């Protein structure tokens, strides 16, 4: 059985508490008051309640950490070395349409000095699916887990047997023509393509071996922070779509089992 650190226990406790609230609201989804936050980007009362719950739980346990959440922005802490990165409800559009595919994502970014320069990396993360009570968690150097079971990425090496996931561009985000070209190029070579609408869960599923790869652009740090570590600790590989390593800033990500990474990156690059 996996032994969870105090940090992971804090994150899981916050995610599960917020998850219970989301499930109650999901059961009454038609009665939720919804306002528009931006083009094709909605926020509900459920978002705000989950955000408040997580902020209170994490803030109580680690009051010195800086905190960045999708709904509340960034709150500076007294400890400049650690930052929570939180999406209280990833898959909001699914949630509001009664589709049971959404999650909570919490990552911890650690900062250190290397060669006289400050560097940042994700040192812990959790993606919690409250509908199925699945807690995907990882800690740097410890591994990735689903509840108490160790995760490993898929071992498939052949694109023809690989299942690939992505996110379709919505209003005002990314270039639909570029994505269409990328999708067309991959469709001819893989076993299937999927778009489920929750990037954090997509990354967790790559870590769990359910997909061989996932790519998307125009994402935010809270969409990918925990998922990056999950994939890496499960033995996978994560870069930007162009091969760079600046995912948290660019919002571009290609995560895979490592076996097909270079091949997919080559196909995406040539499709433009």
Task: Walk me through the structure.
There is one protein chain. With 272 residues, the chain is an alpha+beta fold. It is 33% helix and 31% strand. It has eight helices and 15 strands. The strands form three sheets. The protein has an eight-stranded mixed sheet, with helices on both faces. Strand 11, helix 4 and strand 12 (192-194) form a beta-alpha-beta unit. Helix 1 packs antiparallel against helix 2 and helix 5 (199-207) packs parallel to helix 6 (221-233). It is globular. The model has no long low-confidence stretch (mean pLDDT 93).
Show the helix and strand layout.
Elements: H1 6-26, E1 34-38, E2 41-44, H2 45-61, E3 65-69, E4 73-75, E5 79-90, H3 92-96, E6 103-114, E7 117-129, E8 134-139, E9 143-146, E10 149-150, E11 163-166, H4 176-187, E12 192-194, H5 199-207, E13 213-216, H6 221-233, E14 237-239, H7 247-250, E15 253-256, H8 261-270
Parallel strand pairs: 3-5, 11-12, 11-13
Antiparallel strand pairs: 1-2, 3-4, 5-6, 6-7, 7-8, 8-9, 9-10, 13-15, 14-15
Helix pairs in contact: 1-2, 4-8, 5-6
Short overview:
This protein has helices spanning 6-26, 45-61, 92-96, 176-187, 199-207, 221-233, 247-250, 261-270, and strands at residues 34-38, 41-44, 65-69, 73-75, 79-90, 103-114, 117-129, 134-139, 143-146, 149-150, 163-166, 192-194, 213-216, 237-239, 253-256. It is α+β, with helices and mostly antiparallel strands and 272 residues long. The strands form three sheets. It has an eight-stranded mixed beta sheet with strand order 4-3-5-6-7-8-9-10, with helices on both faces. Strands 12-11-13-15-14 form a five-stranded mixed beta sheet, with helices on both faces.
